[in-house]
Amino acid sequence: MSESQGSNDPRIVLLGPPGAGKGTQSANIEERFGVPHVTTGDALRANRDVETEHGTPREYMEEGELVPDPVVNEIVAEALSNTQGFVLDGYPRNVDQAEYLAEMTAVDVVPFLQVGEEELVRRLTGRRVCPDCGANYHVEFDAPDEEGVCDECGAELTQREDDSEDVVRERIRVYEENTEPVVTHYRESGELIEVDGEQSPEEVWEKLREAIDAAI
Ligand code: ADP
Ligand code: ADP
Ligand code: ZN
Fold first, then answer.
1. Cis omega (within 30 of 0) on the bond before 92?
2. pLDDT value of position 6
3. 11-36+83-215, which class in CATH?
């Protein structure tokens, strides 16, 4: 396969704190740019009770802590092995993961969704998810047509166990400690593009799309 990067298959790393809107915007990117949405969070939730030499992912996720790097790196290596372009959501979450990613592939652009802590807490505690198709909602900001029911597939919506306020606060702390250095790393390498994530989902998408178009 050619080394050259076609403009149709951008390699995107979407960064932002928990609740910044990465999942919501990744769905737009997947649709507009035709690249797969690679999300470590969803992959880990699907395998949360699989025993590894580090225990199960559930033990870490319930507490809001990071799942050990070898487990997560393997998921990403597998997902990237059969695609040219991608939107990575939820990875890398620490500098070691960023270094591992750099050994696997170059990236074209690293958009960073900026959202303040209190807004993150409001978004995450109000988040509802579809267990069947993965669609995301918010009880107030993005409610489904019928309360508690997925617009896309009709399944009953659920709340993630780690979206309780105390676990949310811990996830934000873990983000500040481990993932903010990743943001700094991409800022220094010149790949980071800052997007104000506190606007409406439509406004965020417009800015994000412009930033990606300009970078590829
Ligand atoms: P968020 O909505 O907070 O961005 P995710 O769905 O991306 O949440 O992640 C949920 C949980 O899965 C995290 O709190 C963490 O326990 C685990 N996780 C996801 N991605 C990673 C990663 N790259 N490294 C370590 N743990 C991860
Ligand atoms: P992340 O993947 O970064 O954790 P999500 O995309 O799951 O974030 O969004 C977290 C919650 O906030 C969801 O309930 C979603 O519906 C809502 N949300 C996403 N983007 C916005 C926005 N721009 N304004 C208000 N709420 C939003
Ligand atoms: Zn659904």
1. yes
2. 47
3. alpha beta
